[in-house]
UniProtKB/TrEMBL annotation:
A zinc finger (C3H1-type) spans 56-79. It comes from the Eukaryota. Pfam families: zf-CCCH. It comes from Exocentrus adspersus. This is C3H1-type domain-containing protein. GO terms for molecular function: zinc ion binding. The keyword DNA-binding does not apply. Keywords: Metal-binding, Zinc, Zinc-finger. GO terms for cellular component: U12-type spliceosomal complex.
Amino acid sequence: MGRRYYCDYCDKKFIDDIEQRKKHLQSSYHIKLRNIHYEHCKEPETVLREELLKIPCRRFLQYGSCQFEGNCKYTHYSPEELCQLRQQVEHNQIMRRRRLEEILEVPSVESWVQKYHSANKENTDIIHTFWSYPALFEKRLDLPPSLLKFKPEQFVDDSFEEWGK
Ligand SMILES: [Zn+2]
Ligand SMILES: [Zn+2]
């Protein structure tokens, strides 16, 4: 038994010699299945663009099938199916645009630094913190030092000989 050739499109196995292979690859059966396969791999945009250029296939409309299948020069899509296809294409475009915007929303380091400087320019005495001190605590006298509100005037000594003492 010689080598065998397996055709993915047709799910067919046959003895692999040049003549047989050539004959198979040129057969209308193989071409039809190959075209159907590529039709499924096409982007919806491409299918829509191509199908909108075609006029409806009368054979397909009348009998529900057509020997040319995906290879037909007329369209096998009904107006409803074309409408659905268009909606899918539009949905895909929106999602793509949204994804692109999300990527663009990450600011550059330069723009961040610029924004930081302009926000802190007006008053350099104000310390910007990411938290706010709870107003409830301001009047309380029973808090441990670590929970007391920090006041700049309490900051009298910045020469730390040793940390943690
Ligand atoms: Zn084949
Ligand atoms: Zn047709």
